[in-house]
Amino acid sequence: NIIWSPSKIIARLGQEINDESSYLYWAYK
């Protein structure tokens, strides 16, 4: 497993949340 730092999570979500097909987008919802 990857251990995420808060900044990496935010950066990742910032990218993924723009893509509705991304599982992270839906997971965030």
Automatic annotation (TrEMBL):
InterPro entries: Deoxyhypusine_synthase, Deoxyhypusine_synthase_sf, DHS-like_NAD/FAD-binding_dom
Similarity section: Belongs to the deoxyhypusine synthase family.
Protein name: Uncharacterized protein
